[in-house]
């Protein structure tokens, strides 16, 4: 199975891309809102029952039934494989409520790592665990907890971050496998209609509301046989073996993508989106009034937008082939940047004519056309002589670029019937 790219491991958009599914979701919305309000009321009672009853088989059964009313269904395969003597369960991480689901099947504790303990930590069902300065200290503290007689098993997530659970697993960290020499893998998969089970960078409160809004969410828990460390295996080698077992059970790929790689990927996504939106407000681009996510999901509208930008560049540089303009616009997504790239000779143009033509010829032809059609004072299409210094050549290029920009602005104003004076003041 081919290794998936990092963008395939996470869901960044909640609404479905398919138009038919989106229509169904909109039609379902009034029903979903009523369900969400009703389930919020039931959820308060679930919380109170969980707090009032002691941890036992009776409480787990009652809470599981109430969760089913709330649309959260939990199924498990081969419950006889669950090892009652093991001290550590390791599970792939899909949603922010995975530990609550496992707790409906068996008693276990999930430490809240890297977060200060408090009421919210306790109310969400996490074991309060103090902040530690290193992973080794964290592992030592958990190892000491497991050595206490009668302590509940630990549920740990070696991935340390959530994925969509559809294509691959993040690389397992080594520290959970230094806590105990025997662990039991737990394969978790989540399915729900219309929307993904988890969207990255979404708060747990918002995820809870969507869970109550959607008709149902099905958690499938599969217990795997206990795995023990072999002699000579390091913690990382032990973790790699468990990762492969879980990947095979889930039908996904075991990747080398880490938690840090995910954080860097999401950081780039946050910076690229605002920059793309700002570039669309550049010269000749009409501001879009709908979200970037919806535009990206609709390929037809995206092609129309690119075609419009190609025509805007073509008006300024009429001798540049459309294919070359479109190829550069797909990369830059900005009319201004594409014009600059073509003027500065970022790409050689092979138009198919005898001998071909270069960017320099395109610049000269375009400027001659500007001088023939513009009502502004005559433009200087090229330098009178080749500059002897880099500064002279740069100034000549700047003059030509500014002339082209001014011509493009006038063409845009004339085309859309805007008032020149008002446009300049803006």
From TrEMBL:
A GO biological process held by the record: ERAD pathway
GO cellular component: endoplasmic reticulum membrane; lipid droplet
Transmembrane parts of this sequence: 20-42
Domain CUE: residue ranges: 305-347
GO molecular function: ubiquitin binding
The keyword Transmembrane appears for this protein: yes
Subcellular location: Endoplasmic reticulum membrane; Lipid droplet
Topology with respect to the bilayer: Peripheral membrane protein
Pfam families per record: CUE
Listed CDD domains: CUE_AUP1 (cd14420)
Domain of life of the source: Eukaryota
Main location: endoplasmic reticulum
Gene3D superfamilies: DNA helicase RuvA subunit, C-terminal domain
Provenance organism: Acipenser oxyrinchus oxyrinchus
Name listed for the protein in its UniProt record: Lipid droplet-regulating VLDL assembly factor AUP1
UniProt-listed InterPro entries: AUP1_CUE, CUE
């Amino acid at each position: 199975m081919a290794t998936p790219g990092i963008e395939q491991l996470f869901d960044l958009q909640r609404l479905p891309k398919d138009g038919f599914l989106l229509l169904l979701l909109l039609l379902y919305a009034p029903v979903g809102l009523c369900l969400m309000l009703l389930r919020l009321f039931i959820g308060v009672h679930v919380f109170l029952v969980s707090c009032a009853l002691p941890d036992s088989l009776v409480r787990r059964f009652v809470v599981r039934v109430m969760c089913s009313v709330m649309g959260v269904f939990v199924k498990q395969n081969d419950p006889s494989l669950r090892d009652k003597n093991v001290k550590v369960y390791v599970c792939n991480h899909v949603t922010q409520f995975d530990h609550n689901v496992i707790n409906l099947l068996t008693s276990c504790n999930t430490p809240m790592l890297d977060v200060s303990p408090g009421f919210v930590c306790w109310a969400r069902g996490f074991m309060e665990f103090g902040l530690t300065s290193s992973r080794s200290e964290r592992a030592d503290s958990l190892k000491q907890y497991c050595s206490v007689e009668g302590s509940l098993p630990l549920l740990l997530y070696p991935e340390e971050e959530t994925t969509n659970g559809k294509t691959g697993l993040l690389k397992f960290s080594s520290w959970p496998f230094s806590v105990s020499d025997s662990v039991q893998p737990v394969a978790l998969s989540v399915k729900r209609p219309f929307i993904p089970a988890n969207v990255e960078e979404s708060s747990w409160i918002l995820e809870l509301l969507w869970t109550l809004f959607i008709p149902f969410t099905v958690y499938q828990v599969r217990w795997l046989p206990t795995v023990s460390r072999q002699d000579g295996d390091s913690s990382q080698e032990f973790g790699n073996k468990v990762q492969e077992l879980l990947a095979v059970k889930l039908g996904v790929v075991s990747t080398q993508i880490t938690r840090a790689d995910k954080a860097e990927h999401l950081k780039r996504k946050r910076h690229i989106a605002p920059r793309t939106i700002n570039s669309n407000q550049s010269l000749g681009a009409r501001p879009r009034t709908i979200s970037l996510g919806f535009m990206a999901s609709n390929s037809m509208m995206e092609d129309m937008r690119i075609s419009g930008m190609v025509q805007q560049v073509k008006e300024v540089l009429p001798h540049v082939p459309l294919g070359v303009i479109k190829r550069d616009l797909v990369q830059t997504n900005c009319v201004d940047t594409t014009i600059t790239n073509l003027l500065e000779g970022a790409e050689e143009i092979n138009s198919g004519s005898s001998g071909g033509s270069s960017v320099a010829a395109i610049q000269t032809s375009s400027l001659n056309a500007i001088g023939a059609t513009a009502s502004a004072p005559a433009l200087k299409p090229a330098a009178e002589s080749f500059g002897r210094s880099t500064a002279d050549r740069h100034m000549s290029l700047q003059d030509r670029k500014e002339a082209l920009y001014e011509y493009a602005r006038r063409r845009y104003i004339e085309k859309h019937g805007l008032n020149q004076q008002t446009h300049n003041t803006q």
